[in-house]
Amino acid sequence: MLLFGHLGITLGIFFGLGILIPRLRTIIDPRYLAIGALLPDLIDKPIGEVIFASTFANGRIVGHTLLFSLLLFLTGLYLYERRRDIKVFALASGSFFHLFEDQMLSYPTTFFWPLLGWSFPKDSKDYTGLEHLIGMLEKSFNLEFLQSYITETLGMVMMVILTLYWLKKRSDEKNSEDIIPEPSK
Q1: Residues contacting residue 27 through CB under 8 Å, at least 6 positions apart
Q2: pTM for the structure as a whole
Q3: How far is CA 110 from the centre of its chain?
Q4: Whole-number Å distance between alpha carbons of 67 and 111
Q5: How far apart are CA 120 and CA 107, in angstroms?
Q6: Residue ranges in the chain assigned as alpha helix (H)
Q7: Which of 30, 82, 161, 163 is the most buried (most CB within 10 A)?
Q8: How far apart are CA 180 and CA 38, in angstroms?
Q9: Rounded to whole angstroms, how far apart are CA atoms 150 and 144?
Q10: Buried/exposed 53-75: b ≥16 CB within 10 Å, e otherwise
Q11: Model confidence over 73-109: pLDDT tens digits?
Q12: How many CB atoms lie within 10 A of CB 107?
């Protein structure tokens, strides 16, 4: 899954839960949830596919482990106890959503790292860092490649819906502020 898939689906789930549990919308900052939804890829893709491509040859390493999300959660618990700050909880929640959206349970060696060994599985691709990025860009124009990213499309649709909802809500709030009550006589 790519950018819009992770963002749209994670935020869509959050706002769906917010309908069922309205208090959730008041305590979770969606910006931190969105960053958390991208965090595993922001860490692993540059390290595993570009910087240390010849070593790891995999874009799913430490950030895609249950341990990483649990450490974020424990950090969030600590910060909440100390400062009543829930932002890291939102990061951890986004990170957990990312793992399930990537179906990491299907990759137990990575998901349960280091319980099943210290090494990460290598992809069968021949990674060479920058050449890998150029290859991904070229493939992105291939129709077969695009059809396999239905979740990206779903994520984009969710982002459009959420943006329209946010704009309408903001407009309604602005309109309610513009109404000046007449002085009573």
Answers
A1: 86
A2: 0.73
A3: 18
A4: 8
A5: 10
A6: 3-20, 22-27, 30-45, 53-56, 66-83, 87-101, 108-111, 130-139, 143-147, 150-178
A7: 30
A8: 43
A9: 11
A10: beebbbbbbbbbbbebbeebbee
A11: 999 999 999 998 899 999 999 999 999 988 899 999 9
A12: 18
